[in-house]
Amino acid sequence: MRKKERQLITLGLVVLFAAIAWWAYNQYGADTGVLLNLDNQSNSTETYQLAISDLSASVDQSTGHVLVSFKLANEEHFNISSVEVLYALNVADPNNATFSALDVTSENGTYKAEIPASFGDTVYYKVKVVYDTGKELVTDVHTITVVDTTEPTLSSVSIDYNNTAATFSIDFNATDNDAIATYYVYYADLGTNSTIDNTTAFTPVNATVTPITLTNITEGNYYAFYFKVEDLSGNIATLYNETSPLILLANSSATWPQVYPESSS
Question: How far apart are CA 106 and CA 43, in angstroms?
Answer without folding.
Answer: 36
